[in-house]
Amino acid sequence: MDLYFTNVLEEDDGSYECWAKDHKNLTKRSERRFVVHPVVSLKQISVAALDASRIGVTWNFLGYLDSRYKKFGIQIQKNGSLEWHQKYETTTPTTDRVFVATACNPDTAYWFKFTLIFEADIGIHVFSGWTRTSEKDPVYVPLVSVKETSVDSITIEWSKPPREIESIFNFYQVWMYKTGIS
Asked: How far is CA 153 from the centre of its chain?
């Protein structure tokens, strides 16, 4: 059984008593400590649909988190499903990573759960909002053109990606090589 809270703030820290009745009407209860921790935020995690079957996730943990966690995991849940599927897990602390969820359905919303486990087995869970795959695959082939040249330099420019996938790009990598053509 899972319980989700939305719009929580640091002042929501505290102990909460949880209870539910089972099929025999017996009450099950437990006390849980609910901690809202400002260290991890979705500002450090970016989720965007890349096409009709893939969703890209990038994260960048700065400062405190860069080497203090012992496990980082990503799970995905399809809208309407009650099951989380483990999609990615690393035990090597890293500050800047990329993950692509594949085999997603077209025009379908997905929810991501990010879990950081620290040395003391304390877990922090961060949830994304819903991310919907596109109905069909967008085509993005950047149009590259030469803007200016000189004896020892060249300036190029290229078209921006479509808005629906723009947020997933952190940098572009450009290769130049001599072709032997003068």
From this structure: 38
Residue 26 lies in a domain: yes
Distances from the Cα of 90 to the Cαs of 71, 93, 119, in angstroms?
6, 8, 14
**What CATH number does residue 43 fall under?**
2.60.40.10
What three-state secondary structure class fits 14?
Answer: strand
Q: How many CB atoms are located within 10 Å of the residue 110 CB? A: 21
- Per DSSP, what are the bridge partners of residue 97? 59
pTM of model > 0.90 = no
Contact 89, 72 (CB under 8 A): yes
pLDDT digits (tens, 9 = 90+) for 133-178: 988 887 777 888 889 999 888 899 988 887 777 766 766 777 777 7
Q: Does any domain span residue 107?
A: yes
Amino acid at 14: G
